[in-house]
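Sequence decides. Consider this:

===
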Amino acid sequence: MDDLGMVAALQACSLFELLILLQPILAREGYGDVEVLDRLLTTQKTRHGGFEMVSRIGAGILPLTCVIKVINDDIRVRMLSELVGTVDRINADVGLVITPKKLCKSAEKELPKYTTTKLQILDGEALAGLMRKHKIGVRPGGGVDYAFFGGLEDFANWSEPLITDMKRWI
């Protein structure tokens, strides 16, 4: 198992590639219908106030909402605070921060202080573990499937302009 190779491959992904990759992973993890919102590039601002994806889970008669912030950098305290504010503002049940990198030391120290809002962190190592668990981007022998990541990059480069243009007309 080459977790360092998987983490490195994830870190090389663009934000749009991560969004494409995360939909099936989160769906298989039980997050229900995962919707990618309007932010596809790191240079864009989201119109939804600090998150790129939303998951609505039907748990019996109680619907649960999870806002998902996807970043391509280390998780910092500011990012956690923004997500807590977003979760509170839209009355979501949980906030999830996903990065192919890691939680910085100051954010790791501050994380237990966020007691009013349920926050979950998915860093590069945890994301690599989920990919292995669901056999996404993994070769039959257990190694990293670099052809998969190359195809993901090609698909993202091909589809991003189309999606951006379509959203302009919707």
